[in-house]
């Protein structure tokens, strides 16, 4: 018997969003751990709300805002306008953010207004640190063996926005730059002045860019430190030294794996001064030879570090295919750093979920 093609909606209905999300959904453990991390940030969120009240702006729960921002990374939502649209009708998104079916979704402008507030209070950085502490409490970090790497992040600026700093080409059409020699000393982007023309190889074009740097623990490839910087030829090693200083221990020797780009006498010396053994890939073609010799390469741990360090590319690959850091849609180094940190926090949470599925004792 054929059923009737009719649509009858009850006058009243009682439903819970919790019932629509399967118990086996991969977002469930992520939301559980995320809520634990956000609960630890209650004092910081209270300070943010007080600042909002003094400024005369209506208060929106920072926890909901940060869940929405994390959701945008996890589901590759390309814009905040599309994110708001998804939250308005997607029950899974509403459940994750913490909105009921009757709640009105905030306007898109809320994200841009509150992004600076989150930077001011280092909220995203604290969330990232909470994911690292969570991994440490579950015994997922070695705390002694690390890898470091940097990646190119294309800025939200085009070649047409790159103009002379002295303003001598202000009256020239933006597209009329072909054949002109340009450098960071004489030119800057008008859209994102903090970005710099940079390329990682001679085969690639120089584009307005920033650099992203991560330090991962070798046990499971979890990110333990992250930072964005201006793009130049020294930033990768300089930022790596700062990140290593945060994990270095005077009474415990740790190791760090890295590629040939870090094989310089300055970086190797700085590592050894911090009681860090540099397991850096040898660059025998550089002038003066490699800064790493047989005293380091003869040990079995060197080969292990060289094998493990390649896993650091996974977080960059995830961040550029799933996450938004291939070309960021924000301008300014602080906002790029915030987005990179949020992306690595999301990556850590997905890694924790995968490890918990494989090893229930880590759940």
Please describe what this structure looks like.
The protein is of the alpha/beta class and 363 residues long. It has two domains: 17-121, no CATH class; 142-165 and 184-340, 2-Layer Sandwich (Nucleotidyltransferase, domain 5). 44% of the residues lie in helices and 13% in strands. The protein contains 14 helices and eight strands. Strand 5 and strand 6 form a beta hairpin. The radius of gyration is 24 Å and the shape is globular. The protein starts with 16 loop residues before the first helix and ends in a 5-residue tail after the last helix. It comes from Thiomonas delicata. This is Transposase. Keywords: DNA recombination, DNA-binding, Transposition. Belongs to the transposase 11 family.
